[in-house]
Amino acid sequence: MRGLLCSPLPMLLFLLQPWETQLQFAGPRCRSGPLDLVFVIDSSRSVRPFEFETMRQFLVGLLRGLDVGPDATRVGVIQYSSQVQSVFPLGAFSRREDMERAIRALVPLAQGTMTGLAIQYAMNVAFSVAEGARPPQARVPRIAVIVTDGRPQDRVAEVAAQARARGIEIYAVGVQRADVGSLRAMASPPLDEHVFLVESFDLIQEFGLQFQGRLCAIDHCSFGNHSCQHECVSTFAGPRCHCREGHDLLPDGKSCEARDLCNGVDHGCEFQCVSEGLSYRCLCPEGQQLQADGKSCNRCREGHVDLVLLVDGSKSVRPQNFELVKRFVNQIVDFLDVSPEGTRVGLVQFSSRVRTEFPLGRYGTAAEVKQAVLAVEYMERGTMTGLALRHMVEHSFSEAQGARPRALNVPRVGLVFTDGRSQDDISVWAARAKEEGIVMYAVGVGKAVEEELRQIASEPAELHVSYSPDFGTMTHLLENLRGSICPEEGIGPGTELRSPCECESLVEFQGRTLGALERLTQNLAQLTARLEDLENQLATQK
């Protein structure tokens, strides 16, 4: 009972008593100061009609004990089952009568119990300024009271932790069949002051008399030893500890620790973020330098490329692996300098048919491309790789789709991603792509056929073919692709050591590379001929 005696929530429950008793006992309404209060009500099918009616009286009774007003307590109500419905938002009503009328008209949803979804809605929508919540800088307490009678059918711990991290204080009230573990996962610390469990809806009002006066505005920090490490703030719920800027409150509700800013902000670091006091800085891998923006690492910024990605969306890939493929594509985008003047990116998905997800000319930033990639929906069905190659050659690299004119000599690069054997012929259009001057890369996973990958890819295959045995380990291919699409400096004797970022284009760099390989092949042929001559001379002497 310790939690019940220390918490303001049962004072609210006191108001559930019969109206005559409430009015005789409650006396004048207690003014608690500004407060944003949202009730999250379970209206799943397990809540019987007479129990839902008790819940309705619960809400009406609470309202009659609150100092409701635009500058006092603002109240919002949402109900949930398999979906979430806003009964009325925080900013909808300033009169208690209007709130009661909306509650009395409430019709239960009578479906599942998606409590995590309801918490997410409360966090992202119900407590937003647009819905009537006061802005965070006003430091008005945000309180969510969750009333449920069953076990959630989705996860609640993670989303509840996010809500608490945003400053929402959560009370979890379980009735009858409620799962105690879930209540504890949802509620704010200390749990014995924020978790309540009653045997039935009828008994919920028995807690009321013990908490009269708990809503009154008292300077709780002046009474006793609050033990806050940094600062004590008095709220309607009692003393609450706050931490200095750059620190977070620990689960004991009193101690503070320095915040890891890299986990709490969208730092945008390309490689690694490191917290340093009240700030942070970005790091790059060994051998790469941090750019002027303080976030990205060096790239081939002079290497303008038109890049089209052909992604296998056949049924053999499976939905969960297709999500890994999209993540892999975005990791490729991360090392490209995406812009209308730099690298342009297009994406094509193929299965039994071909679909352009977005053409080369649509997006001008890496962020836009990555967002579009995440929105791509899995096609399933067959694997018509040849049809996809034809589509790429005939459409994807056209000026109408955003490719730059050939007169500008911007390299055209195609990257095919597949996990199996093609169901149509690829030879004609694979050859045609290379005849059209498209530099082709092939990435195979799982049951991809090496012969087909080599047929798709440009020469030498060692530089243009990559393979991973499964989707979970394919991230190791990124460095190979980075080294190919944005290669390092020259490759050996006879090759001028120039950074590809200084090359006029990747085509020039590739030409130099192929020239060096041809000279090496000629030297090997000459050496072989000389060895044959020596062998013949030795044979003659014998």
UniProtKB/TrEMBL annotation:
Q: Which SUPFAM superfamilies match?
A: Chicken cartilage matrix protein (SSF58002), EGF/Laminin (SSF57196), vWA-like (SSF53300)
Keyword hit for Transmembrane helix: no
Which GO terms of the cellular component aspect does the record hold?
extracellular region
Q: Which residues form the VWFA domain?
A: 36-215, 306-481
The family database entries (Pfam families) matched by this protein are listed as: Matrilin_ccoil (PF10393), VWA (PF00092)
Q: SMART domains in the record, alphabetically?
A: EGF (SM00181), Matrilin_ccoil (SM01279), VWA (SM00327)
InterPro entries registered for this protein in UniProt:
ECM_Assembly_Org, EGF, Matrilin_CC_sf, Matrilin_CC_trimer, VWF_A, vWFA_dom_sf
What domain of life does the native source organism fall in?
Answer: Eukaryota
Q: List the keywords (alphabetical).
A: EGF-like domain, Glycoprotein, Repeat, Secreted, Signal
Instruction: Using the record, list the residue span of the signal peptide; answer none if the entry has no such feature.
Output: 1-21
Which compartment or compartments is the protein found in? Secreted
Protein known as? Matrilin-4 isoform X3
Lineage, broadest ranks = Eukaryota, Metazoa, Chordata, Craniata, Vertebrata
- Gene that encodes the chain: MATN4
